Amino acid sequence: MIAVGDVVAERSVHLTRESLVRYAGASGDFNPIHYRDDVASAVRLPGVLAHGMLTMGLAIETIVPWLGDAGRILEYGVRFTRPVVVAPEIGAVLTIVAKVGAVDDDSARIDLTVTHGESTVLGKAQARVRLV
Amino acid sequence: MNPELVGRAFPPTAPYLVGREKVREFARAVFADDPQHADPAAARALGYVDVVAPPTFAIVVQELTLQQLLAEPDTGIELSRVLHAEQRFRCTRPIVAGDELTGTLSVTAVRAIGGNAMVTSETDIRDAAGEHVVTATSVLVVGEGEQ
Questions:
Q1: Which is the most buried residue in A30, A110, B59, B78, by most CB within 10 A?
Q2: Does the CB of B26 have a partner CB in chain A at under 8 Å?
Q3: Which residues of B touch A65 (CB under 8 A)?
């Protein structure tokens, strides 16, 4: 049995520029702010940014091995609250912690905290999952 | 930004055939190491006909519908001024390789906030049998430009 507050999964992911190019190709999102410094600075961004959908996608995958079946995920939503700058040489490390936020007979709400350095980058990142 | 977009009907996208290698490629891109995303035998052991796409894979089909929105001549939306503010997926079942998916877009809300517009759009994604697979909801913040 799981209880509110339990950490069900956690991991760290090291994003590099290669990760962003790989995600661009896999998803079809070729917005150049995700791989060109000149374009990012021209639109006054602090640097090349990770796709919000990459952060959202890698965050939820943290709980898939615990769930055992991605089909148990009934609903998943996030707010993109802070951009993740991926530096050309050192990249960016994201840390994901998945905690039980609420639980009933056959489902639970899992709250995901995704941090980059000292900052949380997703707001209200919550998944509703089937437990049986 | 054009408030009359709300309620406008968009045609379903052409069927998107989900390929096994595409699922593997997407899984690798989102650091999804679980075998169900790459190994058909692992997926079959869970009761699926082929590899299971990661939960956010629906964005690939949703993206096709958002391109329809951007292609409308009267939206007032310029891609370079679009910011992704929120995203949600409501799933009936996971997407698996072999699915033929169509997405149907609707714009559910346009709200003015300061000099920007917040556009909420919903993409209803169905399989070849017409059964619901997932609904993808996006909130985009669209800047008004400086002319």
A1: A110
A2: yes
A3: 33-34
B91 Cα to chain A: minimum distance (Å): 5
CA-wise closest residue to A73 among B105, B57, B84: B57
Q: Is B25 on the interface with A (CB under 8 A)?
A: yes
Q: What is the ipTM of this complex?
A: 0.97
Measured between alpha carbons, how far is A12 from B100 in angstroms, rounded to an integer? 34
> What's the pTM value of the predicted model, to 2 decimals?
0.94
| Residue given tokens 């990661």 in the structure block | B54
CATH architecture type of domain B3-18+54-143: Roll (3.10)
- pLDDT tens for each residue of chain A, 132 residues long: 899 999 999 999 999 999 999 999 999 988 899 999 999 999 889 999 999 999 999 999 999 999 999 999 999 999 999 999 999 999 999 999 999 999 998 999 999 999 999 999 999 999 999 998
Please, are residues A112 and A96 in contact by the beta-carbon 8 Å criterion?
A: yes
Residues from chain B contacting residue A68 (CB–CB below 8 Å): 46
Q: Which domains are present in chain A? A: 7-130 (3.10.129.10)
